Amino acid sequence: MSQEDNSVGWFEIPVIDMARARGFYAWVLGEELTEMPMGEDVEMYAFPWRYGAGGASGALIRHPLMRPARIGTLVYFICADVGEAAERAAAAGGVIVQGKTRVGEHGYIALVEDTEGNLIGLHSQR
C-alpha cells in the first residue's frame, strides 16, 4: 500500500434477496449496479467505481456463508444530500435509524437499515 492509497480497497454487503437489494441501492444511490459473475452459488453486483478516484468501491453479495446484520462494520455511501437519500431509503422499504445529523466540519450523516437488515451510513456535505 502506498501513501496515496486509502486503507480500504473493497467491501461486500451480504444480501438474501439480490433483486430486492439491487432495487433498494439503485433507488437510494441513483446508480445501477453491475453484475460480477462469480459461479453457481454466489451472486455479486458491484457499485459503480471510477479508477483513480478516492474512496473504495464494493458489491452486494449473496453467498451461502454470509448473512446480513445490523451490527458489525458500518459502510458509508457518499450522496448529494443525506436527508433526501434517507427519505429514498425509507420509500424503498428501508428504515431510517438516525436521521440527518451534523458531524461538525465533516458534513452530515444518516443511518438506515436496508431491505436485507444491514445497517448502512449515508454521508454528504449538505
Q: Which structural traits does this protein have?
A:
126 residues; alpha/beta; four-stranded mixed beta sheet; globular
What features would you describe in this structure?
With 126 residues, the chain is α/β, with parallel strands linked by helices. Helices cover 17% and strands 32% of the residues. It has helices spanning 18-29, 82-91, and strands at 10-14, 34-35, 43-46, 57-62, 76-78, 95-102, 108-113, 119-124. The strands form two sheets. Strands 1-4-3-2 form a four-stranded mixed beta sheet, covered by helices on one side. The longest helix has 12 residues, at 18-29. The radius of gyration is 15 Å and the shape is globular. 21% of the residues are buried. The mean pLDDT is 93.
Q: Which word captures the global form?
A: globular
> What share of the residues lie within helices?
10-25%
Unreliable stretches covering 5 or more consecutive residues: none
* Rg estimate, integer Å: 15 Å
Q: What's the number of helices?
A: 2
Q: What is the ordering of alpha helices and beta strands?
A: EHEEEEHEEE
Which structural class do you get from the secondary structure elements?
A: alpha/beta
How many angstroms does the end-to-end distance come to?
32 Å
Strand content: 25-35%
